[in-house]
Design a protein that fits this description.
heterodimer, A: alpha/beta, Rossmann fold, two-stranded antiparallel sheet, 9 strands, 38% helix, globular, B: Rossmann fold, 2 domains
Chain lengths: 255, 356
């Protein structure tokens, strides 16, 4: 086989979606954000939604998501993405709208905006990347930091007596009548990636059907913040994060 | 109608697309009026009661970023909560209309009228170097008129326009002349008029991004310099004020909003007593009528800034006059409105005596 034959279009097994820009990702090697970005953009491309989608970026590691996602985007103040998305979606009910947020953004400073957008049943998707730490600011304790976990602001481990417990906000929003589909996924193995992509597809499909808020948590790693190699971080995540944040659907549409 | 109802009717008729707000005295009539008069059925306007002022202002951010005409209203403590979003809109140059029906502070203060939020409105109440256009209505008619004017200015300059009212103007009832209903812009019109708006990336353009972030300080300085250029241009072109009996005035009241109404009456009382006093009423607080005051400082013997505050606008009057004539302040605090005879008494017995 010649080189030309090998790279012929019919032999292509994978290509970068055109909904990702060519800007190099600013995420640390081994971080799950890149995969999560890719999946959302792939789904939008496959569904032909680029021209009618408006995304909302958070404050946190994904603050520059708009550098990588080739769609119209707004960058929201810390925690306010669900309010910003509410403003957009209410004024453009036929467009596709989503927020992309981390645990500090969504489950600490933005808890109010998150719960009320969910409770109103706003018809957009929330993608929530939970790695149990503030990555961008340098590894401080997050609302989802595990008990005993060491961070820059819990250097002797999270003491639940004085620092509270990990907030399982995904279970919380599943209780609200406004949420339609609530699930928890991961992107650290090929199998997890396939499942996560399915969940993202469903979230956008339900939005098109005007079903209400779809909430997709992605439990991810932070090898820099956790001070581990990517492989160690993924192993640690499976062993420690998944028991507290078990993967799977939490709220499925009623048949 | 009430001032608060007049502005609600004003935004509907000006083709407003969305209102996001949270109840607070003395302005809850705005949201109530939009709901009870069925704004949504009349024009398709979206009216949503948010969970907080913080959420309200960020809903406004989202709508404005998508090119829609959006409005929110609150009163002092609620406007303090909105400062985060206002600063973000300053940084992203998003047009919107804001209303502050000012009550006395600090803190919860009182629900009675006050003008103690002048600094917050005029000097940029949130973080960073920015200004808003600030309009100060002195009647229910102006509450109505400034809705359309505010939207026009906001979109002309891509800036936030704040209507700085107070509990008296918001709550009092006067006759209002209404205009015909203006149509809301269609989505296609928004795409062509506001090419910066996030309306969905089409094949014929690059993606639109609404962000106030640039980590490169060199670029961030350029962004800031361009913002200042815009504010300077507004300062040169958008000053509005009203002169009342200024032509032969020897003394001048400077007052806006409710205080200007009080001073208008005080001017008449003063004239009856042989005091040649006039009133300059700034209608825009930013941009401030600096040049007009500088001109008047060559004519009058002194200026008395009358405000329902401890003295905020008086600083801008002094800067305008730059020492040419004495400038003093008279104010009542905590929700008290001064009476016209009280003001003229202060002018005659305190101010004029002190400078002659």
């Amino acid at each position: 086989m010649t080189r030309e034959e090998i790279i012929a279009p019919e032999h292509c097994v994978y290509h970068r979606t055109e909904l990702l820009t060519e800007a190099p990702l600013s995420y640390c090697p081994g971080c799950g954000h890149g995969t999560a970005h890719r999946l959302i953009m792939e789904v939008l491309e496959e569904k032909g939604l680029q021209t009618q989608t408006i995304g909302v970026a958070p404050v946190g590691c994904a603050v520059l998501a708009y550098d990588f996602m080739n769609i119209d985007m707004q960058q929201a103040a810390h925690g306010r993405a669900p309010a910003v998305a509410t403003g957009i979606k209410r004024l453009y009910p036929e467009k596709t709208v989503f927020t992309y947020q981390g645990d500090g953004d969504l489950a600490a400073i933005g808890t109010g905006e998150t719960l009320h957008a969910c409770n109103r049943g706003e018809n957009f998707a929330i993608f929530f990347v939970n790695n149990g730490i503030y990555g961008m600011t340098g590894g401080q304790m997050a609302p989802t930091t595990l008990p005993g976990m060491r961070t820059a602001t819990s250097p002797f481990g999270r003491d639940t007596h004085t620092m509270g417990h990990p907030l399982k906000i995904t279970e919380l929003v599943a209780q609200l009548p406004g949420t339609y589909f609530v699930t928890r996924q991961a992107v650290h193995t090929p199998n997890a990636v396939r499942k996560a992509k399915k969940a993202i597809e469903k979230a956008f499909e339900y939005q098109k059907l005007d079903k209400g808020l779809c909430f997709v948590e992605i439990v991810s790693n932070c090898n820099s913040g956790w001070k581990m190699t990517p492989q160690e971080a993924n192993d640690w995540m499976e062993k420690n994060m998944f028991p507290v944040f078990p993967l799977g659907d939490i709220k499925l549409p009623k048949p | 109608m009430k001032g608060n109802e007049a502005i609600a009717e004003g935004v509907i008729r000006a083709g407003c697309d969305g209102y996001f707000g949270y109840p607070i005295t003395p302005q809850s009539e705005v949201l109530e009026y939009l709901m009870t008069t069925n704004a949504h059925e009349r024009t398709g306007m979206v009216v949503l009661q948010a969970e907080s002022e913080i959420a309200s202002i960020h809903m406004v951010y989202g709508g404005a970023g998508a090119g829609k005409r959006v409005f929110t209203s609150s009163s002092s403590p609620g406007i303090s909560l909105m400062q985060e979003g206002i600063s973000f809109m300053a940084g992203t140059e998003l047009p919107c209309l804001l209303l502050n029906v000012v009550r006395g502070g600090p803190g919860l203060g009182t629900i009675q009228p006050s003008q103690s939020d002048y600094f917050q409105a005029v000097k940029g109440g949130g973080h960073g170097d920015y200004k808003m256009i600030v309009l100060a209505p002195a009647s229910v008619q102006e509450m109505y008129d400034f809705a359309k004017l505010g939207f026009d200015l906001a979109f002309k300059h891509r800036i936030q326009v704040m209507i700085l009212s107070d509990g008296a103007i918001g709550q009092m009832m006067e006759k209002v002349e209404l205009d015909d209903q203006l149509p809301r812009l269609t989505d296609a019109e928004i795409v062509s008029k506001y090419p910066w708006a996030t309306t969905g990336k089409s094949a014929d353009r690059e993606r639109n991004i609404i962000t106030s972030l640039d980590l490169n300080p060199v670029k961030q300085e350029i962004i800031n310099r361009n913002l200042q250029k815009k504010f300077n241009h507004i300062a040169e072109t958008e000053v509005r004020f009203e002169r009342f009996m200024c032509d032969d005035a020897e003394y001048l009241f400077v007052a806006y909003g409710s205080s200007a109404r009080v001073c208008q009456k005080a001017v008449q009382l003063g004239r009856e007593r042989g005091i040649k006093v006039g009133l300059l009423r700034p209608i825009t607080l930013f941009p401030f009528p600096t040049e007009e005051l500088a001109k008047l400082s060559k004519q009058v013997k002194g200026m008395l800034s009358v405000e329902m505050s401890a003295g905020q606008m008086v600083e801008d009057v002094r800067l305008s006059v730059n020492g040419a004539v004495p400038v003093e302040h008279y104010g009542r605090l905590g929700g008290i409105i001064p009476a016209p005879d009280e003001v003229i008494h202060v002018l005659e017995n305190d101010f004029i005596k002190s400078i002659n």
